[in-house]
Amino acid sequence: MQTTAEPASVALPGQPTLARKGMMRLPMVPKLAYRNLFHDRLGLIVTVVGIVFSVVLVAVQFGLYLGSENRIAAMFDHAEGDLWVVPLGTKSFDDPAMLSGRERHGVLSTPGVASVQELAVGFVNWRKPKGGSTAALLVGSDVTQGISLPWNVTEGSASALAAPSAVAVDSTYFQELGVGGLGDRAEVNNMEVTVHAVTKGIRSFTTLPYVFTTLATGRTLLGASADQSSYTLVKAAPGTAVEELRSALAKRLPDAEILTHAEFRKRSLDYWLFETGAGAALIAGAVLGIIVGMVIVAQTLYASTKDHLNEFATLRALGASAGYINKVILIQAILSAVIGYVLGMALSLLVIWAAEDSTLLIVMTPHLALMLLALTVGMCVLAAICAIFKVIRIDPAVVFSR
Amino acid sequence: MTALPYMLEARDITKVYRSEAGDIMPLKGVSVELAPGELTLLMGPSGSGKTTLLSILGCILSPTSGSLSIAGYSTAGLSAEGMADLRRRHVGFVFQSYNLVPTLTALENVMLALDLRGASRAEAPDLAWEALAAVRLSHRAHVMPSKLSGGEKQRVSIARALAGAPSVILADEPTAALDSENGQAVMALLAEVAKDTRRAVLVVTHDHRTLKYGDRMIRIEDGRIASRARRRLSEVNNEFAPAA
Ligand SMILES: Nc1ncnc2c1ncn2[C@@H]1O[C@H](COP(=O)(O)OP(=O)(O)OP(=O)(O)O)[C@@H](O)[C@H]1O
Ligand SMILES: [Mg+2]
């Protein structure tokens, strides 16, 4: 019996100097994956269409979600401060009520406060010059005191709002508001206003038009008293702990809520995205996209693997390790993922570009693009794992019975 | 010739297929040794267990009992991956239906076997061309299997079995799908492989015209060895003498 003999004694010339570490391998695994993929054109097209569909759906849903976030948070990104004094029970920036009117004084007399800005925000009735009316959200703030509301001014200027009864509107709302540019007049709560500035792209998540004006004009138009405001935005003096200032303010203003900038921002986002279900719907759409994509990819990859099962059995019979075969299937999946992602991304950007002039705000960020890539590859790898389970069970003995 | 150890040694191999309809025992205690430089023919009626034996000798199937060693390595206690490793390094297969990978060219099919056997990027092309040259198919290297004739396909599969220099080449009815002329050419090639490279070759065959290429013949009937014969060294006709 030779079973225990020194194996080297039967080695023959011509055997490859078996795999040593650091040796370059032949690119047979990617070649097989590539050939398998492109061998079945129809299967490849179905796979890629599935992935593209999925990528576009997820990109648009998440892009809309990000766009919604941007819209909801826009006010906060342009009205920087440390603490917000808001009426009790305020759900979001777009859900205004009036404070009692004594806040400014209370805040200013609190140690550690650097400055105070007030905003008068409220729903108004906007009567179009040619008849008809609509609701709008009036935002009165003093642009002269450093808050940059409104922004993106394309016609006129923010400082022109200092004129009596001057307002700024967004060009994307011209139609709803029945105006067409600078100098156009309308009525707000039965008081005449004149457009002195036009912005571009300031839209609300609720689609209700924003109308910007000064604090004083805002108070007048909203019928508020001269010391009333909706929100009081507090800047802490350098070196003041914001939390301490918050509790000091809370003590002085028991009828108001004191929120940090981040808290109020998050409260607004959570309200519109989750309490109203709008964000959940967008996320559900994205999840649906992922599921549909995954099912299609799993289905086509599985079919492709089944088509090539005899080759996998041959590979196995020739002594391929399970890992070798799994790598072929995985690379096949990743290749389809990359092709699908590139095409899907291109199509998504096209959709986003086409939506630019519509009222939809779809946002694509490098972060989202990376996440989509990871998602696509992950989706395809998961599909590949399903296919691998099919191959694991093949019996190499079938090579003799064909 | 007997100075060299056997390339393959199987002792008392049995195989039982269990099924609800009852057990089938295609192998009932078979012992086989394959010596380097020899082409052994395995013959027997249909259903006698030839393919089953070949699968076991090639580490594709595990025997129900018995022992097997290839190139000095015992298969006792090997896992599925261990068996795959052993057949990858020491066994070359030639199948009746070729089993070439249809999406790879002739050369790439040979390269695939070399890649599986761990050949590096540097040495594989030379080894692959060498193997194709050995089956006289260098001129068809870049042709897809679908464009090759049956005889050419089988020669590619011999090149694939040969590449990487396994200790044993096992062929299951390699000529069954070929016409007489191509069948003879393939058998001649396998005999040449056995002689030139001093590896053990076992060929399952039904075809009596292939007898002249064998050095030894084993007949199997109903899962048992019915007879063994060795060609008389002096004779050039198809006569086999009972083995000593
Ligand atoms: N996977 C299996 N399960 C159950 N029985 C099997 C299986 N494979 C083969 N057999 C049975 O084992 C016996 C031997 O089959 P085997 O394929 O080894 O015969 P063979 O000698 O190669 O025949 P042929 O000349 O027709 O190819 C047959 O009765 C066959 O039906
Ligand atoms: Mg058979």
Task: Summarize the structure in words.
The complex is a heterodimer of chains A (402) and B (244). Chain A is an alpha+beta fold and 402 residues long. Chain A folds into two domains: 25-69 and 278-400, no CATH class; 89-254, no CATH class. Chain A is built from eleven helices and ten strands. In chain A, strand 6 and strand 7 (191-199) form a beta hairpin. Mean pLDDT of chain A is 84; it is low at 1-13. Chain B has 244 residues and is an alpha/beta fold. Chain B has six helices and eleven strands. Chain B has helices at residues 50-57, 80-90, 106-116, 124-134, 150-162, 180-197; strands at residues 8-17, 24-34, 39-43, 65-70, 73-74, 91-94, 168-172, 200-204, 216-221, 224-231, 240-242. The longest helix of chain B is centred in the last third of the chain and has 18 residues, at 180-197. Chain B starts with 7 loop residues before the first strand and ends with a strand. The complex binds adenosine-5'-triphosphate and magnesium ion. Residues 50-51 of chain B line the site of magnesium ion.
Strand-helix topology:
The complex is a heterodimer of chains A (402) and B (244).
Chain A: H1 28-39, H2 41-78, E1 83-87, H3 103-108, E2 113-127, E3 133-141, E4 153-156, E5 166-170, H4 174-177, E6 185-188, E7 191-199, E8 210-213, H5 215-222, E9 231-236, H6 242-252, E10 256-260, H7 261-275, H8 278-307, H9 309-317, H10 322-355, H11 366-392
Chain B: E1 8-17, E2 24-34, E3 39-43, H1 50-57, E4 65-70, E5 73-74, H2 80-90, E6 91-94, H3 106-116, H4 124-134, H5 150-162, E7 168-172, H6 180-197, E8 200-204, E9 216-221, E10 224-231, E11 240-242
Parallel strand pairs in B: 3-8, 3-9, 6-7, 7-8
Antiparallel strand pairs in B: 1-2, 1-4, 4-5, 9-10, 10-11
Helix pairs in contact in B: 3-4, 3-5, 4-5, 5-6
The complex binds adenosine-5'-triphosphate and magnesium ion.
Adenosine-5'-triphosphate (ATP) binds next to strand 2 and helix 1 of chain B.
